[in-house]
Design brief:
By secondary structure, the protein is mostly helical. Helix content is 42%, strand content 0%.
Length: 40
């Protein structure tokens, strides 16, 4: 069985703040990719 890394994103989104929320999500995904997560 192979092992993989899963990144759990705990995001604090703000209703209506689309640009901010998009930035938070993109940065979280970049971080997950930087630590070689196979699943987000």
């Amino acid at each position: 069985m192979t092992r993989g890394k899963i990144a759990l994103l705990h995001l604090e989104t703000v209703p209506g703040a689309i640009d901010r929320n998009r930035y938070v999500i993109v940065e979280a995904i970049k971080h997950a990719a930087a630590i070689d997560a196979q699943w987000i």
